[in-house]
Amino acid sequence: MTNTLYSFRRCPYAIRARLALAVSSQSVFLREIILKNKPAEMLALSSKGTVPVLQLSDGTVVDESLDIMVWALARRDPNNWLQGSFTEMLSLIDENDFEFKGWLDKYKYADRFPEHSTLYYREHAEDFLMQLENRLSYTPYLFGQKISLADMAILPFIRQFSGVDKDWFEQSAYPFLKVWLANFINSQLFTSVMKKYPIWLESEQQSIFPEIQ
Ligand SMILES: N[C@@H](CCC(=O)N[C@@H](CS)C(=O)NCC(=O)O)C(=O)O
């Protein structure tokens, strides 16, 4: 029996989980879901109703994307994403998840938060971008010369930010961040985890992820 991942293709949390599963070659049955119509099987495993959810073959449920990343990399970490200061990486990822993501959502869905303007939300989100730009002006990746857990946990959110207003992002003053993001988006790893899967229906055959290269 193989592990099962409930996923949603465009969700940045699910993307980061798939990145770690793919790099560590942890094979899963991928169940692509629709957020508006979550399968009962997934809710029975994790009642909070967020993706990603990983069910291990021994029944263990891992329903936080970062925990899925760490679980996968602890089994196999061929590119040493876990190398470096774990505490510092977690602290930056925390800032991403608990501060930046909030501003990103408000920037993206500004019409749902009419108390302030789109510009206001974007400027708050930019505090985090500036911090990343500063780091990337010294080294090509957030924690040095090579990709780490922090890059892969944060990049899907920066990609989402860049897509809210592409024209604005393209002319924005974040040269190092833009190169870092472009390298990620053009990477084989990212392309491979963004492959489209049919929506999972109970009766349907299972999709295997990652695909054997
Ligand atoms: N802390 C969770 C957050 C996951 C999350 O919020 N995922 C979003 C999709 S990007 C979700 O499932 N939202 C529930 C919904 O929209 O109903 C994690 O890291 O896995």
UniProtKB/TrEMBL annotation:
Q: Which CDD domains match?
A: GST_C_5, GST_N_Omega_like
| Domain called GST N-terminal: residue spans | 1-80
Q: Which residues form the GST C-terminal domain?
A: 79-209
Q: Name one GO cellular component term.
A: cytoplasm
Keyword match Transferase: yes
Q: Pfam families, from UniProt?
A: GST_C_2, GST_N_3
Q: Which InterPro entries match?
A: Glutathione-S-Trfase_C-like, Glutathione-S-Trfase_C_sf, Glutathione_S-Trfase_N, GST_Omega/HSP26, Thioredoxin-like_sf
Q: Name one GO molecular function term.
A: transferase activity
- What name does this protein carry? Glutathione S-transferase, N-terminal domain protein
